[in-house]
Amino acid sequence: MGLANKVNGSNSTVAAGIDTKKLEYVKAKEICFEDGDPLILRGFFFQTGKYGESITLVTDKLGINAPDRYVAKFKEFTPDEVEQIKAGKMGISRIFMYETPNGETPMLEFVDIE
After folding, report:
1. Strand (E) positions, 3-102?
2. pTM above 0.85?
3. What is the pLDDT of residues 25-81, one digit of tens each?
4. How far apart are the two ends of the chain, measured CA to CA in Å?
5. How many CB atoms lie within 10 A of CB 19?
6. HSE on the CB side for 112, CA within 13 Å?
7. 10: Cα within 13 Å, side-chain hemisphere
8. Residue 62 contacts residue 22 (beta carbons within 8 Å)
9. Rounded to an integer, what distance in angstroms lies between the CA atom of residue 38 and that of residue 91?
C-alpha cells in the first residue's frame, strides 16, 4: 500500500456493500459449532462500552460479538491484512466453550480461506 493510499483511502474495516445496521448480532457463545463450513469474515469493528473496548466480527449476515481478548489481536493487523479479511480470506472454523478459573468463555479458532 502506497503512502498516498493511507491518506486518500478509506480506513474501513468492513467490506464494501455490507450494511452493519442490517446484520443480525449474536454473542459468540450463542453460535458454538465444531465442524462444517467456516464462517467467512468480511470485516470487523471495535466499540467502547460499559465494560471497555470490544470487537464485533462481521460476516455477510452476522455481527459476532467476540470476547475482548480478541481486540488486541485484531488491532495488530496491517492495512493489507485488513483488506484480505474484508476480501473473505479468513474465517472462523469453530467456536467452542472453554473452562477457565473465572468460568466458561467462548474460544474462536480461525482459518485461512484460499
Report:
1. 24-27, 39-40, 43-49, 52-58, 62-66, 90-100
2. yes
3. 999 999 999 999 999 999 999 999 888 999 999 999 999 999 999 999 999 999 999
4. 21
5. 7
6. 3
7. 8
8. no
9. 6
CA distances for 105 relative to 24, 30, 89, 100, 101, angstroms: 21, 11, 26, 7, 10
All three cell numbers of 51: 465494560
Other CB atoms within a 10 A radius of the CB of residue 63 amount to 21
Q: What are phi and psi of 80, to 5 degrees?
A: -65, -40
Q: Is the pLDDT of residue 6 over 50?
A: yes
Task: Return d(Cα 55, Cα 109) in angstroms, integer.
Answer: 15
